[in-house]
Amino acid sequence: MKFTLRQLGYFKSLCSHRNFGRAAEASHVSQPALSVQIKALEDIMGGELVERRARDVILTPLGRQVLDHAETVLQAAGTLDRLARDQSSGRRSLSLGVIPTIAPYLLPGLLADLRAHDLQLSIQIREARTERLLEALQTGALDAAIMAVPSGVTGMIEEVLFKDRFLLAGSAKRLAMLNASGSQVGPQDLQTEQLMLLEDGHCLTDQALEVCGMQRSASGINMGAGSLATLSRLVAAGFGLTLMPELAVSAECMAAKGLCVQRFGAPEPFRRIGLLRRASTNGEGWFDELAQVVRSTGKSIVPQCQNDYGPADDAPADVV
User: Fold this and answer.
1) CA 22, CA 34: separation in Å to the nearest integer?
2) Which of 81, 105, 145, 307 would bridge 97 by S-S if both were Cys, CB 3.0 to 4.6 A apart?
């Protein structure tokens, strides 16, 4: 191997800042020094990596390919560096992934609980959609991930942690109109033109469509929100109805003025939250310990929702 990690780091910085001067400043080196290393990397790779312009740079086709691999190499090198530092200091390291519809509501309490459980644990968190987390698990970039299960991916150990029930969320006016008939509303009573969901790619969207008995191709469904926070504010303003996970209800109702929720009748729709790791990884007890802490943290959030909006109709909160 003729190239160095330093050269790859400089090149990544140049791609991020699109300017030799700014990249050099961010890398804490002089501009000539950075330029020399980029030129040396180009010589090794056998072609120009960037098109040099007066005020910026543009990646060449070769540069795009090199950047993809450089990011992978630098990420792996960073993981090795953290491992070496952890080993020398006696600390243990955990790289944990969490999907976006769980992370904001679970992580604050979970990180505090993990720290209380093990002061020597060094934790790196990655928030991403299910597909990305599964890829990271398979490549070894993550040790474990918290997501809705089953994942449908072979080679994974999945530990079910708790049920996360869905409530119906919207403005007071919309919910009142829906309840005008006096009959209890079920997920399949919702009309496509009433429903607002997260943008395509979120597993919560797939789950909501399934429990409502709707096809992705159905006309009228608004799938454009990028986060539950955005979705909550839209439906609170009267733009539609959505399915809100019990895990998120208290936080979103507090943050989104005018957001109202109600429970569906029994049996309530739900998703199962689980903890995943590669089957090829030795659990060594750490996985079971982590699952126990995550389960405890998750179940501690649900009682507030049940206190404010009534208990689940179909089963106790801790039944999985």
Assistant:
1) 11
2) 145
Do residues 302 and 247 make contact, with C-beta atoms less than 8 angstroms apart? yes
C-alpha closest to that of 299 among 186, 193, 163, 102: 163
**pLDDT tens string 241-278:** 999 999 999 999 999 999 999 999 888 899 999 999 99
CB atoms within 10 A of CB 62: 15
The backbone torsions φ and ψ at residue 2, rounded to the nearest 5 degrees and listed phi first, read -95, -30
* DSSP-based three-state secondary structure for 258: coil
Residues 6 or more apart whose Cβ sits within 8 Å of residue 235: 169, 170, 171, 174, 196, 241, 242, 259
CATH of domain 164-270: 3.40.190.10
User: Could you count the other beta carbons within 10 Å of the beta carbon of residue 51?
Assistant: 11
pTM: 0.71
pLDDT tens-digit map of 3-25: 999 999 999 999 999 999 999 99
Domain 92-162+273-301 in CATH 3.10.560.10? The answer is no
Q: Which of 183-197, 212-226, 227-241 has the lowest mean pLDDT?
A: 212-226
Q: Is 167 helix (H, G, I), strand (E, B) or coil?
A: strand
Say which residue, 266 or 175, is predicted with more confidence: 175
